[in-house]
Amino acid sequence: MTNNKTNKSIAVIGGGPGGLMLGLLLQQQGYDYTIFEKANPTVNNERGGSLDIHDDSGQLPIIETGIYDRFKSLVRYEGEDTKVIAKDGTVIFEEDAEGEGGRPEIDRGELCDIILEQIDKEHIKYGYAFESLERLSNNKVAVSFTNGEVEHFDLVVGADGAFSKVRPYLSTVDLDYTGISMVEINIDDVKNNYPELAAYNKNGKAMALGGSQALLAQLNGDGRIKVYVSYRAPKEQLNTYKQLSLSELKAQLLSDFDGWHEDLKAYIHAMSDDVLFRRIYKLPIGFNWNHDAQLTLLGDAAHLMSPFAGEGVNTALYDAYIFVEALKKYDDFDEAISYYEQQILSHAQERAQESQDNLELMFAPDAAQQLGEFFNSVKSEE
Ligand SMILES: Cc1cc2nc3c(=O)[nH]c(=O)nc-3n(C[C@H](O)[C@H](O)[C@H](O)COP(=O)(O)OP(=O)(O)OC[C@H]3O[C@@H](n4cnc5c(N)ncnc54)[C@H](O)[C@@H]3O)c2cc1C
User: Fold this and answer.
1) Ligand 1 atom nearest to CA at 128
2) What is the mean pLDDT of the chain?
3) Which element (helix H / strand E) includes 369?
4) CATH value of 3-77+101-175+284-362 in 3.30.70.270, 3.30.390.10, 2.40.30.10, 3.50.50.60
5) Which residue's CA is minimally distant from atom 7 of ligand 1?
6) What span, in angstroms and rounded, lies between the C-alpha atoms of 56 and 320?
7) What is the pLDDT of residues 217-227, one digit of tens each?
8) Residue 85 Cα, ligand 1 centroid: separation in angstroms?
């Protein structure tokens, strides 16, 4: 590694899993970097649901940074339990996780925490929301934040998620609505409060599929079941739902799932007042941008895809890994960033296609049959 490279100052915009992991890897290589995160540190349950971390992508930087043992102490291998159910309650596929599989589950908040634990505090600034940037004549970039601060860097990495404010400096391409909207509901401490539902759901994912609707349930590490009540629906439908009181919303969801088996409607009956509305967006598959020596993207900012292949966080972590591998491989900083972009964009393109194919499958008229048969065929090949 040349001094020339480690002297570069790097701004990482966004302290999600991707930005944090990039920061830790840069720190371990001796780079001058700062992570800017718009939020303030929050508690685990406000920081997203459970994510499966894949051994061929998301786990690579976890091993590289030496936090694998910590990761292993928190992951739930039993979280790989999988069930596919038709809307009449027929269980089409069911598999209980055995031993240590390659895709264990961890809550997003815990994943962020174990990376953050290793980051020197002076390298992360909270309450800094990226506002704009300006390319200066001395090859530096001036980054402005909504709190009025301005800082100068050699390179800015936009790791600021789906609705990235950095991305528009590299591309005019907009996000596409996938046609899927979700009402995210939570069932707290399910083992104690709803033991029958806990036994029905098991320790992992239960996917009830019924054509244009789905109930996608997942046990989280904090004892909640998070259910993505999902619809193939126009974008506007959620506007109506957002106006409803909690009891009206519950009645609406029960009415939408009228005719579904009682075992499945039990998830809605048990919902708490912790509700989130989500429209699922994506970038066009194969999204790219013209290389810019001062600016690049990572994670959802670079390749937002729908969550139906469970690849989003894995590609974000993989990007961070490749970023630092590229810096090790090339003496020239700019060449390294070009190489990084080529590698991550082709890797993400395949995952984005898989996510889109899964979306089509999971909202097809015979979705439960198709997905059940798919899992059964994979199982019989093992
Ligand atoms: C319903 C749902 C379920 C999902 N399930 C899975 C799954 O099972 N498996 C999986 O792999 N992926 C899943 N994902 C996707 C996964 O959550 C994302 O792909 C992953 O979090 C991307 O990480 P990231 O670091 O790129 O971005 P994010 O996690 O979005 O982090 C971006 C960070 O940037 C910060 N930020 C935003 N704007 C600014 C700004 N202007 N200035 C400064 N900071 C800013 C945000 O506060 C945030 O901390 C799911 C997504 C959804 C919506």
Assistant:
1) 43
2) 95
3) helix 367-381
4) 3.50.50.60
5) 310
6) 14
7) 999 999 999 99
8) 28
Shortest-distance Cα residue to atom 1 of ligand 1: 307
Q: What distance in angstroms lies between residue 169's CA and the mean position of ligand 1's atoms?
A: 20
| Both structure tokens of 291 | 């290389």
User: By alpha-carbon position, which residue is closest to atom 52 of ligand 1?
Assistant: 307
Closest among 4, 94, 17, 11 to 52, alpha carbons compared: 17
Q: Give the Cα separation of 203 and 52 in Å (integer).
A: 13
Q: Which atom of ligand 1 is least distant from the CA of 159?
A: 26
Q: Which atom of ligand 1 is nearest to the CA of 166?
A: 41
Probe target for ligand 1 pocket from 38, 150, 227, 311, with the most ligand atoms within 8 Å of CB: 38
Is the pLDDT reported for residue 177 higher than 90?
yes
Q: Which residue has the tokens 């720190």?
A: 27
d(CA 365, CA 232): 11
State which ligand 1 atom lies nearest to the alpha carbon of 19: 25
Per the structure block, which two tokens stand in for 162? 């789906």
Assign 380 a pLDDT band (cuts: 50, 70, 90): confident
Query: How far is the CA of 381 from the CAs of 59, 375, 377, in angstroms?
Result: 25, 10, 6
**Average pLDDT, integer, range 168-176:** 98
Half-sphere exposure of 226 (CA within 13 A, CB side): 22
- Give the nearest ligand 1 atom to 165 CA: 41
Just give the CATH number of 176-282+364-381: 3.30.9.30
Within 6 A (CB) of ligand 1 lie 13-19, 36-39, 48, 51-52, 129-130, 159-162, 165, 182, 228, 278, 299-300, 307, 310-314, 316
Domain parsing of the chain, residue ranges: 3-77+101-175+284-362, 176-282+364-381
- Rounded Cα–Cα distance for residues 272 and 255 (Å): 18
> Which residues are CB-neighbours of 15 under 8 A, at least 6 positions away?
23, 35, 36, 37, 39, 112, 116, 124, 126, 159
**Same fold across 3-77+101-175+284-362 and 176-282+364-381:** no
Q: Would you say residue 42 has pLDDT above 70?
A: no
Which tokens sit at 277?
Answer: 């509305």
